[in-house]
Amino acid sequence: MKKNLFLLLTFLLVQTLTFAQNRKTKKEKSKEVATVITDSAQWRKEHHIINRDSAYANPRIGIQKLIGGNLRFIEGKSIRPRQDAETIKKLDKGQQPFATIVACSDSRVPNEMIFDQGFGDLFIIRTAGQVSAAASYGSIEFAALKLKTKLIVVLGHTECGAVAAAVARPEDVPGHIVTLINEIKPAVAKSSHLPGDPVNNAVRQNVIDQVNELRDLEPILHKKYTNGEILIVGAVYDIHTGKVEFLQETLLNLPQPKTAK
Ligand SMILES: [Zn+2]
Fold this sequence. Notes:
The protein has 261 residues and is α/β, with parallel strands linked by helices. The protein has a domain at 81-250: 3-Layer(aba) Sandwich (Beta-carbonic Anhydrase, Chain A). It has eleven helices and five strands; from the N terminus they run αααααβαβαβααααββ. Strand 1 (99-103), helix 6 and strand 2 (122-126) form a beta-alpha-beta unit. The mean pLDDT is 90. Zinc ion binds at residues 104, 106, 128-129, 157, 160-162.
């Protein structure tokens, strides 16, 4: 009887020790994983992580953050940042988006997904062919003036239906759609001599024209742009590959920020 009791006690002791050991191992393992995710410079490099506050403070870093997010997206390494309840709660006090995106309404160009960003990151204005009028201008100005968002990206995309319509020049366009087509027609005319696909050539030219239009827009954007307070650049999203190309034509001779007085 005594022997049985001794065996039972020994068995229970071994079980307890093994359980404790397993727990410790699991805890250590989860700690290891957490270290890899949050602290590893290697992991941050591989996932093209750029600090969010730096991107908000400096539009040039903002461009790098968008490029990094798009690389994650096309490499199948999206981390879907700031898409949790904690972020929603944090943002109920206000927003500081690091970029304003002026994009097409096309359902194949979901902005937060292609740039792998989250809540509070992007201030987005979307119309077909990213054609802007008064309400869009007001929205862009609001972000620049009130939210202090310093980066504006005009984002076109390949195979854009609105641009294709402007290239095709249909007669008797119904409703307000004619407004969109008329706004894009100058870009079609400017790019008509180029070799290659006429729609995608016009898409690029349309983005360049829209960037210049916003840079010249009085009374708020023009001054902020020439002072170097904000950047306005253009990019094209390729609906075949998922890649965003920032257009070199819109990255040259950018005004430098004036040093703070
Ligand atoms: Zn489009």
